[in-house]
Amino acid sequence: MQQHSSCGRIGARFLCRAHLFVVLATLGLSLGVINSLNAQSLTWLGTFGGNESWANGVSADGSVVVGMARNTSGYRRTFRWTQSGGMQNLGTFGGTESVAWGVSADGSVVVGWAQNGIVQSHAFRWTQAGGMQDLGTLGGDYSGAYDVSADGSVVVGWAHNAGGYWRAFRWTQAGGMQDLGTLGGNESAAYGVSADGSVVVGWAHNASGQIRAYRWENGVMQNLGAFGGTESAATRVSADGSVVVGGSTNDSGGYHAFRWTASRGMEDLNQTYAALLTDGSVLLQCREMSPDGRYIVGIGWNAALSRNEAFLLDTGAAYSIKGNVVLGDFTGDITQIPVTVELRQGGNVVGTRTLSLDPGGNYAFTTYSGTYDLAFKASHWLRLVVTDVQVVNADVTGVNVSLTNGDIDGDNEVTLFDFGALVAAFGSIPGDPNWNPDADLDGDEEVTLFDFGVLVRNFGAIGDE
Length: 465
Fold this sequence. Notes:
Layout: H1 13-16, H2 19-31, E1 49-58, E2 64-71, E3 76-82, E4 86-89, E5 94-103, E6 110-116, E7 121-127, E8 131-134, E9 139-148, E10 155-161, E11 166-172, E12 176-179, E13 184-193, E14 199-206, E15 211-217, E16 220-225, E17 228-237, E18 244-250, E19 255-261, E20 265-268, H3 269-272, E21 282-289, E22 295-302, E23 307-314, E24 318-327, E25 339-345, E26 348-355, E27 362-368, E28 370-378, E29 384-391, E30 401-403, H4 416-425, H5 449-457
Parallel strand pairs: 24-30
Antiparallel strand pairs: 1-2, 2-3, 3-4, 5-6, 6-7, 7-8, 9-10, 10-11, 11-12, 13-14, 14-15, 15-16, 17-18, 18-19, 19-20, 21-22, 22-23, 24-27, 25-26, 25-28, 28-29
């Protein structure tokens, strides 16, 4: 069995590229180096006598830093650094090496992996009172911890099972090490956890053996997809569990950084923030973000300097777009009709929202500063595009639309094909073999002459592209 290392095996590319540069960007963000010019400072943390050290995690107030430093023999050792105490060696389980990957918000709990006397790496949880606690495995020989909840009570990472496969785990003192499963394949790993420990993110094999980013909550592992390539991995999740970041291959095989939310799905940050990348630079993958999800750091291709380089992306504050949707010729319950909105910039779709209307047809969703074309579409209504909606550091109201009914077959036109679909469903009610809910144009749960009247009134209409 191969020994665990910080940069080995599947998915590790998401943790190890330009590692030091990303860590420094993250550290600067947490310490306020980036945002507070009056408080700028840089502290070199030293080593244990060797030639390098890595900082992998920092407490919420920046007072505690954790990572690894080489000793005089060249071995990696976990450290916990404070201004008053300097670099503290947290030791091993009797082996030669250990690395810390995460720390709780108050700096009191440190997690990572450490070798035992037979050179097996095991996940650990360290506290001042209890020292380095071995979290065990899932029946195999190796494990490693990568992140910890804000209060230090939940630890996540990977562990070998009895078959020698990597499995994502979630550990608590009461429940021990829980196998989070896969997406139908053999292996998985966990890289990030929300502040309260309820949401876990990482990568997992699907049934085809492809690597896919996932978000786990309440025992369910959700596949977050990919950009058309063969793999994706999630590296971090926001404090409230609503925002996930990572990297994914696209159709061309290249890596692109992503952000996922329930309302938007997986967004390519190179499209969402295309206005910031006009020189050909590319955001390759995300490695960390601020607790509120606003600031994202990672690795990108700096076209101006022709090199991979750490980046800090300020996504800006989120603002609301509000308005009203009229579903034409409809007497049913509009709160049960989802309305999809595509956010477009420069002809490209940079985001999608699914709106839930209130009884009056009102809606609201959030986005970031920019100028958008908004394309509204509901099941048997034609698409309508509202152009040049400008979101400039403030909420936008009054984006109202009225959608034309009659597009039964969903081709964005009202034609004879829709007439044929209505005829096929004519006279039906829910439960009938020929029932077609999209042919019930007026929403009264019957396909009747009233629906035929709607189609006749709007016959020949064509929606916006």
